[in-house]
C-alpha cells in the first residue's frame, strides 16, 4: 500500500516521462521537416540550374547566324558563331561538358574563359547526365539537357529547338 508522501514521486516520474516523450516527438517532427525542406531545395536548385543553362544557350542561339556540333571521344560540344561582336568582344561561344570529380558540369567557353553553368549549387550537387545537340535537318538544331541531383536522385530534363543557318 502506498503512503501519502510517495504518490508525488510517482506522479513526477510519470510527468517527466511524458515530457521526455513529447520532446522526442517534437524533435522527430522537426528533423523530418528539415529533411523535407532540404530535399525540396535541392530539387529547386536542379530545376533552376538546368533552366538557366538552357536559357543561356537559347540567348546565344538567338544572336547567332551559324552553329556547329562536334563529337569527340565521348564529349559533345556545341559552338555558335554570332552575327555581331557581343559585349564581351567575341563572336564565338562553345558549350560542352566537363568532368569535375564525381560531377559532370555543363560549361560555356569564350576564347580563354571557361564558365561552369551547372554543378555549383549549395545543396543540389547537380551533375549533367545528358547534353546532346543534333541537327534535325539543315539549319534546325535540337538540344537535350538533362541533370540529376546527387542529393535526391531526381532527374530533370529540358529540350529546345532552334532554326538557324548551319555552319558548314
List keywords for this structure.
single chain; 168 residues; alpha+beta; six-stranded mixed β-sheet; three-stranded antiparallel β-sheet; 1 helix; 9 strands; 33% helix
How would you characterize this protein structure?
The chain has one helix spanning about 5-60; strands at about 65-70, 75-80, 90-100, 105-110, 115, 125-135, 140-150, 155-165, 165. By secondary structure, the protein is of the alpha+beta class. It starts with 6 loop residues before the first helix and ends with a strand. It has a six-stranded mixed beta sheet, covered by helices on one side. Strands 6-7-8 form a three-stranded antiparallel beta sheet, with helices on one face. The mean pLDDT is about 80.
